[in-house]
Amino acid sequence: MKDLGEFIEAEKIVKSEDKEDRKKTQEELFNFLETLGVKKEDRIIDGKYDIMLYEKFGMK
After folding, report:
1. Helical H runs in the chain?
2. Which of 43, 51, 48, 42 has the alpha carbon at shortest distance from 26?
3. Residue 24: domain span
4. How many folded domains does the chain comprise?
5. N vs C: which end of the chain shows fewer Cβ within 10 Å?
6. Tens of pLDDT along the chain (60 residues)?
7. How far apart (Å, rounded) are the C-alpha atoms in residues 27 and 53?
8. pTM confidence score
9. Contact 53, 8 (CB under 8 A)
């Protein structure tokens, strides 16, 4: 993304409402991203492109 760097998004539909199932799926996705060279500490959860741009450039 221009001015923010490179991003990748991974999603998986989880029909179960069980919190542990959702946690397990999230962990599977992070493990997959690690195989692509993405580190867990680099993750952004619920990041919105427009909000990140405003924050980067100090806009309100």
Report:
1. 19-35, 49-56
2. 43
3. 1-60
4. 1
5. C
6. 677 778 888 889 999 999 999 999 999 999 999 999 999 888 877 777 778 787 888 876
7. 28
8. 0.65
9. no
pLDDT at 34: 94
Which two tokens mark 28?
Answer: 């599977």
**How many Cα atoms are found within 13 Å in the side-chain-facing hemisphere of 35?**
6
Distance of CA 38 to CAs 8, 9, 10, 14, 48, Å?
Answer: 9, 11, 11, 22, 19
C-alpha separations of 17 from 11, 27, 32 in Å: 16, 16, 22
> Would you say how long the chain is, in residues?
60
User: Is there a contact between 14 and 30 (Cβ–Cβ < 8 Å)?
Assistant: no
